Structure formats: structure tokens, C-alpha cells
Amino acid sequence: MKNNIEVLDAGKHSQLKVITGRGAEFGENVHFVPVVADELRSLVLDYPIVLMKDEQTGQFSLFALLGFEPGENLYLNGRQWSASYLPLHVRRQPFVISYASDAAGDKKSAALSIDLSSQRVQNDMGELLFNGDGSPSPYLTQINQLLAKLVGGMDISQRFVQSLAELDLIEPAQINVAFVNGEEKSYDGLYTVHEENLQALEQSKLAELHSKGFLQAAYLMLASMGQISKLIEMKNQRLQQAVG
Amino acid sequence: MKRIIIVGGGTAGWLTAGTLAAKIKESCDMGPRITLVESPNVPIVGVGEGTWPTMRNTLRKMGIRETDFIRECDVSFKQGAKFAKWTSGADNDFYYHPLILPQDFNHINLAPHWLDQGAGQSFSEAVCPQEALCELGLAPKLITTPEYASVANYAYHLNAGTFSKFLQKHCVDKLGIEHILDDVLSVNSADNGDIRSLSCASGSEIDGDLFIDCSGFKSLLLGQHYQVAFKSCKDTLFLDTALAVQVPYPDENSAIASHTISTAQDAGWIWDIGLSSRRGVGHVYASDYCSEQEAADKLRAYVKASGADADKLDYKKILIQPGHREKFWHKNCVAIGLSAGFLEPLEASALVLVEMSAQMIAEQLPANRAAMSIVAKRFNKTFSYRWQRIIDFLKLHYIVSKRDDHDFWIDNRNKATIPDSLQELMELWTYQSPWHDDFDHAAEVFPAASYQYVLYGMGFETQASFLERSESRRKLAMESFQKNKMLTQQLVQHLPTNRELINKIKEYGLQKV
């Protein structure tokens, strides 16, 4: 589906409503979502957090794994998302920050925008974006804060991932799983923190990582890998339900 | 062994220094100190712009980031060589010597099965995806492929001038190699005939236990000091002169060829090497068969036909003495690079010999003077063999040719000019295809696959024999051909162009993992 992004406008979008629930129809049946480092502390309770490369640039970014193959979100059951924390990227839908260049063509200003092609965007059901006087609704105010957090978080995440790469703290995650139906799979393209190198890091580098909060983030990522077994369990449950 | 002195700061000197330093650093705490002394007044020759895939490992072991190397040395990827006009001289005459081994090369010899099938696909196309990749100008990897890893095996094209400076910086900053800028004036001998020290123009004296001669064509230590004889092979390989030019691209997004192009001429051939910043083109010819004027005209015509402005190009003339020293290690002195010898760059053998030499010295670094004589003997045996194998392999390109439009080509097929070792192999291959056991594995430079690519690329005919004739082998071969076809399709779909990948690496860099 092609995106149709418009900068939010109190006049133009005064009647627009947004459905806030969960569901596959909103494109939530995905097997991973991008996340930011600020979320790690909350994410680690539910999701495995890995690094993956962007196909166009080869650069690493942080992702939460939700399933084992495209179209599979094991946390999503109908309208239920079974986790104590929802990634910012999921909650911010269908809003985005778009960057417009001015007349000179180089200065970029950020503007809160909406993807009108999203199934969430409606005229009859859901949350209004603007109050009668054109001021942002409480819902939109909340979205605004959320997006601000996400955008700020992306900067820090990038620096975090860059530090990991520079210090040789990234290694491929060897993930081999066997499901109850006998199917065995191995997954390529996933990376995690190189624990051995992290432990062998010299004091000054460790201190530097620590001062930026990156050391803790690295350990949170390592801890989150334990959630792979939770994913396998959820997958097995589904397979058994399908059979039963 | 306390101190190793390397004389010469070209590519050979710094590659040797870096390889030795990295090995010593890895294997001992108090290893010998390495000093490289370089004349501030001697320019480097700097025409070695094509490498082998071995260079990836050589650089990786030295601790160099591939991203830095690609960005700073105008590097592009090389997936083999395209030989044009070598067989018949016709305009549509070409074949590839790619870098990927034939499909399932460790299990099955596809050559007889390909010969069975008769005309149709070229040999390299039938057994390996790289001809297709090169014809489309595709890169050998993706931006997501880690540094030094490949999707399709690759080597490099590089700017030799910036490469030695790049290596120098890494060697001095990261590997702790001592760098002295001074002219070596004389060599001081010890009683046993070893080199004790070098006296320099500044008045200083540099002593050492092992002296590595990387002084280029001058061969300052092995040639001039020790007078180790030079063994010419001009009666086998006739080329003795090169004219080299640098050709700019039309614009910064021009396609970069993903392979070396070697186009045969009346009395030699023209190389065409695409770097990221420019092309390096040169005509290497036999002066007995072609005048400088003729050679220069051919070079200009080639450049012009490739779409570049040829009139303003200034060429650099390089005289080549094809051949090598009778031995390479004498007393406590070993020669690496041009000081050891030089052959026409048809198969980019210059840098790989430097890498192999440095690696053997690093691995067998003699603990003391007594051990050195034994290591030296082994080194000489290994490298005499390697040089001879390279000479044979280069000559192969000339003798399989069917060109008879010039005496140069006809004379090349004169039996008197063909080494016995090669004549014997050629006779064998008339009856059976080249295979692993035809060679002495441990010291081999070119695998049997390379001989297959050249022979069958040039239409050499091996008679059908009883080998590889069972129905089960035939079935296996068909599976391998099919596998290659699938792999080729897959790669063609997914790989970016050489230019696209180089630009992306410049912008984003490659990851280490």
C-alpha cells in the first residue's frame, strides 16, 4: 500500500479520527519493529532485541523481534497484544514526523504528519485530533510527546550502535530453533552484543561507555536474548493450537 | 634475531613490513624490531594496480579496515580478467578467467562434461557465475556483506601510489614499524659474508640480522651487492616495454568495470584497470616486434575507442626485464618484489608474489643464524618453483592462441620458446583435462582451475577419454551445471553495480561483521 503522508492541519483535519486499538488490519502482523535505546529497559521484559542491517546502507539499527517469519507477530492475538510494554514505533502509528525543506531548499523543519492511507484513519470512529477550537486534543498532545521521544531516541540509538560497531562489540547472533512440529530453522542477519569483547574491553573505554549509559544498554540487549525462548514457546503454542 | 631491516618503501616494502609485524605481534611478546629505510629521492614505480583475492587476507591480518582501504586507495572490485582478441583476434573474441572456482570443483571435474556438450555456453559461463556478473558490471558483494567477506570471490584494483602511502601510515602508526628516510650508500659485510650494516647518506649506520631487499628494479642488496645473477626469460615471454596512461572517467558516476580487461594487440596486449577515480591503461609490448611509435598509436587508438580523449594523454614508459634472480635468499638477505624479478602483468602476479614471500618469511622466521640457512634453502626452492609455474602459466596464454596475423604470435608458438615443463603438461592435457593432481599443491600459485579457464576459454581441445564417463558422474555434472545456472540468476538479481557499491561504501562504510 502506498503511503499518503500529509502535514497535520487543524482546519483540514478537524474531523479526522484515529482508531487506537491493536490488530492485524493495522499492519501489526510484522515479525520485527524498530526500537530505540531509551526503550530497552522496558522492552527487555518481553522482547528479544537485536541489531539488523539496513539493506540500502548496511548500517545497524535496533529491532525488537516479534516472530520468526514475515507476517508473524506472536504477541498479537486478535485485538490483544500480550506484552507489558508496547514499542513506541507501534504506538505512534499512523503519525510520522516529516521533514520539509524551505524555499531555499536546504533548511529542514520537522512537522507532525499523518499517513492517511492507514486503516486507522477514519471519519466516524476513534479519537479526534483537534478540539472544537482547533487546539490539539489530549490524544494528539500525547502522540506529540511520544514522537518527540522517538525522534530524540533515534539519535541516541544511532550513537549507541555506532559505539558498539567501533569497539568491535557486535557479533552475528546464531539463532537455531526447533519447533514442536519438528521444523528446524536458523536465522541469518541478526546481530547482538559481543559479550566476550565487552568483558575484555579496557577500563577507559568501559568508563566512556558507562558515562553515556551505553554499557547498561549493551547488557540489557544481552539479557533480552533470553526472550528468544519465550518467542519459541509462543510459536509452539500456536502450532499446537492449530493442530488441536 | 633482533632486528629486521627492509630496504625500500614501495608497495613491496610496506606489505612485507606489515605482514611481518602483524605476525610477530600475534606470536611473540619480544619479537624482532622492524625498520624500513627508504630513499627520499627515489620515486616508486607504482604500476602494480591489480591484486589477487589473497590481498583481502593480507590486509585483514595487518589490522586494516577494508572501508579505509577502499576509500583512500581509489579501490574498486576485481572479479577476474577478460581476455579479448587473444584466440583469433576477431572483434567478438573473448573469454574470462574468473576468480570463483568451477562449481563443485572439489568433487567433480566439469571440463570433460562441458566438452561433451559441444558449443553453446562458454566454459566459464557454464561453470561459474562471474562472467555474467562482469558483463553486467556488477559488484561481488552487498553493502550488508561484512568487510573482506564476499558473495562472489574478489580481488582489488587499486592506486599503487596512494596504496604504499596508506600502508606506510598504518605500519608506522599502528604496527610500530620504525621508518627511516635516508639513502643507502654502501653495504658493510661481516666476516662470514653476511650483511652487517648499511651506511647511509646522513652518516648513520643501520645494523640488522636480516635484510630484506625491496629496493625495486635496482636490487640494491641481492643484485648489486651480492651480484646474484639475473635469469632472463625473454626467450619465453617476449614483452619488454610498457607504456602506461591514466584515463579519467567521463563523470563521477561512470560505470566501473568489475574485472581487468586485457586486449591482445599485434605484438603484446593492453591492460585496462578501472579504479574508482580513473582508469589505468597501458600497452605492454615486445620491442623486437613493435616500435614505440606503433605501440603508442595503438594505445591512443584503444583509449579513443573506449570513449575517452586520447590526444592529450601523456604516457609513462617503463622498461621491463622479464625474469628473476637465480635465487632470492642469499646469506642474510632476501629480495621481495621487483628486486627479485618481474614478469608482464598479464595475471597480476607481482603483488601476490610479494604477499606469498612476506608470508613465508613471517611463518618461518628463523630464530637464529643457523636456522636461517635452512629457511633460506627452502624459500629458494619454493620460489624458484613458483616463478617457473607463473612463467609457464603466462606462456600458456600465447601458445593456445590461434592468431597468425603477426610474427609475434607465430614465434610465440615456436617450440624452442616453450619451457619443457609446459610442453609436457600441454601434451597431457591433449588427452585429459587439467586436474588437481597435475600440480605440486603446497607451492602452487595457479590452481588447475586457472588452467581450465584459459585452455577452454581459448578453445583448446582435449580428446574424449574414459575418465569421468560413468552415468552417475554425468548426472552429477548436470546437477552442478544446473546449480551454477541458479546461482548466476540469483546473483544477477541481487548484486548492485560496482559503481553503486563503491559509492555506498564511500558514504556509509562496510561493517566489520
Instruction: Write down the CATH class of the domain at 3-49 and 159-231 and 324-368 in chain B.
Output: Alpha Beta
Largest sheet of chain A: 3 strands, antiparallel
Query: Kindly state the mean pLDDT of chain A as a whole number?
Result: 93
Instruction: Supply the number of structural domains of chain A.
Output: 1
Q: What is the spatial order of strands in the main beta sheet of chain B?
A: 5-4-14-15-16-13-17
Structural class of chain B, by secondary structure, is alpha+beta
β-strand amount of chain B: 15-25%
| Main interface by residue count | A-B, 15 and 12 residues
Low-confidence stretches of chain B: none
The end-to-end span of chain B amounts to: 37 Å
Query: What is the level-2 CATH architecture name of the domain at 3-49 and 159-231 and 324-368 in chain B?
Result: 3-Layer(bba) Sandwich
Mean pLDDT of chain B: 95
Low-confidence stretches of chain A: none
Please provide the ordered H/E string of secondary-structure elements of chain A: EEEHEEEEHEEEEHEEEEHHHH
Question: Can you give the helix content of chain A as a percent range?
Answer: 25-40%
* Alpha plus pi helix count of chain B: 16
Global morphology of chain B:
globular
Short description, anyone?
The complex is a heterodimer of chains A (about 240) and B (about 525). Chain A is of the alpha+beta class.
Describe the structure.
The complex is a heterodimer of chains A (244) and B (513). Chain A has 244 residues and is of the alpha+beta class. Chain A has one domain. Chain A is built from 7 helices and 15 strands. Chain A has helices at 40-43, 88-91, 138-166, 195-199, 203-211, 214-224, 227-243; strands spanning 5-7, 17-18, 32-34, 49-53, 60-65, 76-77, 80-81, 95-101, 108-115, 121-122, 127-128, 170-172, 175-178, 184-187, 191-193. In chain A, the strands form 6 sheets. In chain A, strands 1-9-8 form a 3-stranded antiparallel sheet, covered by helices on one side. Chain A has a 3-stranded antiparallel sheet with strand order 10-2-11, with no helix packed on it. A 3-stranded antiparallel sheet of chain A has the order 3-5-4. The longest helix of chain A is centred in the middle third of the chain and has 29 residues, at 138-166. The radius of gyration of chain A is 20 Å and the shape is globular. Chain A starts with a strand and ends with a helix. The mean pLDDT of chain A is 93. Chain B has helices spanning 11-27, 54-61, 66-72, 111-117, 123-127, 130-135, 160-173, 220-225, 292-305, 349-363, 369-399, 407-412, 420-431, 448-457, 471-494, 498-508; strands at 3-7, 33-38, 76-78, 80-84, 94-98, 155-157, 178-181, 184-189, 195-200, 205-207, 210-213, 230-232, 241-248, 260-265, 268-274, 278-285, 316-319, 323-325, 329-330, 333-335, 341-342. The model of chain B has no long low-confidence stretch (mean pLDDT 95). Chain B is an alpha+beta fold. Chain B is 38% helix and 19% strand. Chain B contains 16 helices and 21 strands. Chain B has a domain at 3-49 and 159-231 and 324-368: 3-Layer(bba) Sandwich (FAD/NAD(P)-binding domain). The longest helix of chain B has 31 residues, at 369-399. In chain B, helix 1 runs parallel beside helix 7, helix 1 (11-27) runs parallel beside helix 10 (349-363) and helix 10 runs antiparallel to helix 11 (369-399). Chain B has a 7-stranded mixed sheet. Chain A binds chain B through residues 53-60, 165, 168, 170-172, 189, 191, and chain B through 142-145, 504, 507-513.
